[in-house]
Write a structure and sequence with these properties.
6 strands; elongated; about 160 residues; two-stranded antiparallel sheet; about 35% helix; alpha+beta; 4 helices
Length: about 160
């Protein structure tokens, strides 16, 4: 349900209102951070399929160790040993198909927002905010990686597309 609602929030549903898009994900191996991996894979698949998106969603897992340190993208074993962990989904960037004014919510840029947050375990507000900060910083690097790799699939000159 979390995956479905996250994907629905980034898809432009008004362009083809009488159509259904089905996303099927098959888990081959679970080495931790399964939900963020599924969200990132589904977003890449939607882009590859040409489904119109408001923006990409970039997902990451932040695990909180007993010492207060944060581990990004923990393995399954690390997740089990952690005090708490949170799955965070951020909008990719301000590069969007939405009109310029709609990129802000209450005067704050959408790229500073969060799409989805799921927390497991007990975590203080300060630790959660620290996870948000670290996750947002890491999501910027993931966004750059996705943009470079997804743009390399799109021909730069539409007249050369065969």
């Amino acid at each position: 349900m979390i995956l479905k609602r996250t994907l629905q929030s980034i898809c432009v549903l008004t362009i083809n209102p009488n159509t259904t898009t089905t996303v099927i994900l098959q888990v081959v191996n679970d080495d931790g951070s399964l939900l963020p991996c599924a969200i990132n894979a589904a977003c890449a698949a939607l882009v590859d399929a040409g489904i119109p998106l408001k923006h990409l969603a970039v997902s990451i897992c932040c695990a909180l160790a007993g010492s207060g340190s944060v581990i990004l993208d923990p393995t399954k074993l690390e997740e089990q040993k952690m005090e708490a962990f949170t799955y965070l989904v951020f909008p990719n960037s301000v590069l969007s198909v939405l009109p310029e004014g709609s990129l802000q919510v209450d005067g704050e840029l959408m790229e500073h927002g969060i799409i989805t947050s799921v927390t497991h375990g007990v975590i203080s507000v300060d630790d959660y905010l620290y996870c948000l900060e670290r996750g947002h910083a890491a999501s910027g690097k993931i966004s750059d990686f996705l943009r470079r790799n997804l743009q390399s699939q799109v021909p730069s000159d539409p007249s050369k597309a065969a």
